[in-house]
Amino acid sequence: MESTQERHQREMAEIRKRHQRELKEIGERHGREMTEVQERHARELGPPKRRRVPTPAAEHLRNPCIYVMGGKSGQVVFSAVEKLDPRTETWGDVDSMNGKRGKFAAAVLGSQLYVLGGYDFRSEPTAAVERYDTRSMSWSRAQPMGTARADFAAAVAGGMIYAVGGLDEDSAEMSSVERFDPRTGAWDEVAPMSSRRCGHCVVSLEEMIYVMGGYNGAAVVAAVECFDARKGLWSRVAPMSTPRKEFASAVLNGEIFVLGGHDDEATQLETVERFDPATKKWSSAPSMSTERSAFAAAVLGGELYAMGGLDDQYDKLASVERFVPRAGTWVKAPPLETARSDHTAAVLGDAV
Q1: Which single residue of 42, 84, 155, 333 could bond 202 by disulfide (Cβ 3.0 to 4.6 Å)?
Q2: What is the pLDDT along the chain (352 residues), one digit of tens a residue?
Q3: What is the rounded distance in angstroms from the CA atom of residue 166 to the CA atom of residue 151?
Q4: Which run of H or E residues covers position 54?
Q5: Rg of the chain (C-alpha set)
Q6: Phi and psi dihedrals of 19, rounded to 5?
Q7: CA geometry: angle 68, 289, 35, nearest 5 deg
Q8: Region labeled Disordered — which residues (predicted)?
Q9: How far apart are CA 65 and CA 67, in angstroms?
Q10: 247, 269 in Cβ contact below 8 A?
Q11: How far is CA 254 from CA 198, 264, 279, 305, in A?
Q12: What whole-number distance in Å separates Cα of residue 195 and Cα of residue 225?
């Protein structure tokens, strides 16, 4: 016979599931309504006059492709790299990184792709950095960071790479930030964040570096803060509507998109929200078709790709889906050759 405590636990579980379904339905309905409003405004007012935000792929590269690097396949980190060529819609192998990495970061400077830190083959945080050059199509060692970091994020602003937060060699969350200047080949520390984080996301938009979500040592958070790379100052930004960790983010059409991950109850998420820097507000966007965490995202050809990761059963995924802004929907894309999680992705092309 079911006890009072067991009945209470069952009822609470049912309430949580119902609440999640209702939130998903509200988000999807809101996304459809927003799409209808935007389409009506577009018909009435003509094309929007939003200032175009340059991206490396759009402004300085030709034949851009999505590169997916490292992560976990099985229970160990590996160094394999593959890339998606949008002209053929196929994935192909690229020379592997020199080192095996998981939960690391990547950044693109010109025709060079930098991979930073992460967990190495011993499952220990590393400060090692290497770079891939599209001219030589080979990897080489680069100046290591000043601090070993894993489960962190990086972005480029003002022609320099910023490595933000993460876990140190004692598995403690960090607030520190360091910056790589390719002109001097050196790393130096800049002002730290106001809070410690790991499992967060970082993007740059017009010389502003946005840091979102993650785990602060006590809870998964929705908090967002922003670093002005020109002034060297941090400021608070409106929080996301949902706390997220091990999620992905990217800039699409001048807005910041955050996708999936898991919340403070370890519930895998397929929900998506976006931030408009003009209004400084977050709003719901159409959800992905699959719950994902520990995955990667990138923008190519004006569409947002979500690649690999862990599903709601924590099984590794090879599946890829992409968001088509004009249609306001997610569609299937060619799957990865290797199912993986804890990997990183970046868009890289031939230098002009």
Answers
A1: 155
A2: 556 655 655 666 565 656 556 655 655 554 455 445 444 544 444 433 333 334 433 445 688 999 999 999 888 899 999 999 999 999 999 999 999 999 999 999 999 999 999 999 999 999 999 999 988 999 999 999 999 999 999 999 999 999 999 999 999 999 999 999 999 999 999 999 999 999 999 999 999 999 999 999 999 999 999 999 999 999 999 999 999 999 999 999 999 999 999 999 999 999 999 999 999 999 999 999 999 999 999 999 999 999 999 999 999 999 999 999 999 999 999 999 999 999 999 999 875 5
A3: 5
A4: none
A5: 20
A6: -65, -40
A7: 105
A8: 26-55
A9: 6
A10: yes
A11: 25, 29, 12, 16
A12: 9
102 in Cβ contact with 126 (< 8 Å): no
Q: How many CB atoms lie within 10 A of CB 105?
A: 27
- Do residues 306 and 68 make contact, with C-beta atoms less than 8 angstroms apart? no
Largest CA distance in the chain: 73
How many C-alpha atoms does 115 have within 13 Å on its Cβ side? 34
Q: How far is CA 52 from the centre of its chain?
A: 21
Residue with tokens 């030709």: 62
CB-facing half-sphere around the CA of 342: CA atoms within 13 A: 24
Instruction: Give residue 348's identity as a one-letter amino acid code.
Output: L
The H or E element containing residue 6 is: helix 4-45
d(CA 341, CA 143): 26
User: CB neighbours (10 Å) of residue 293?
Assistant: 27
Closest alpha carbon to 351 in 5, 86, 150, 60: 60
Q: Are 320 and 66 in contact (CB under 8 A)?
A: no
**Distance between CA 80 and CA 101 in Å, rounded?**
9
Tokens in use for 168?
Answer: 């140190």
